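#lab-general

N.A. 3:47 PM
ok so I finally got the sequence cleaned up, no stray characters, all 240 residues accounted for. can someone with queue access submit it? mine expired

B.Y. 3:52 PM
send it over

N.A. 3:53 PM
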Amino acid sequence: RKIDFQVLAALSGIAQSAHKLATDLRILQHRKEVEEPFEAAQVGSSAMPYKRNPMRAERICGLARFVMSLESSPAMTAATQWLERTLDDSANRRLVLPQAFLAIDAVLLLCRNVLDGLVVYPQVIQRNLEAELPFMATESILMAAVAAGGDRQELHERLRRHSQAAATMVKQQGVANDLLDRLAQDPAFAAVDLDAAIRPEKFVGRAPQQVDEFLQEVLEPLLAKYPESIAGQQEDEVRV
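B.Y. 4:20 PM
back already:
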């Protein structure tokens, strides 16, 4: 019974990671930065013809939540055994185990399908960055201005006023974010290289290195360990 729980815990862990991945992809699709595969004759919405709902990512989330909900069943079974053991696990495990494996199989199939056909729109990403990055960079701008000899409290207050004024214009009038223009006209920030302060690569930390390390230290050894299984994979059908 403990082993049943450990199996479900492993499958639930896969489901959690897949759900997080699919949720992020749904958010990015909402922002029009990426798109999952979309068939030529696929209908995105029966009510609104223009829509391209993230049906695959949504299906991943739905199935993943189902698997996560199953994890508690073997845990309860293991916890409520009488003395040595009872047989109330039998009917339960005949449902929980196969359903969890079948659902995870579908989740992984969908993940592979989505990632194989994922479309990325760099220009949309750039536009969104230009809209938000000046706000995100205010801490870096503040630190640079302080390093140049400015008073932190005074600079913080100036940044606060400029940021809120720029945000108000964006939200109320729908204009572009002009925070950098406002700061460029403020003598208190004359010593700050504003262009350098908003370079996107300054805000990703070690993400590029972490990806390379994961590929080299985790993924590539696994691929090398099971070459026959990978070479024998067939393309699975996903119906939308």
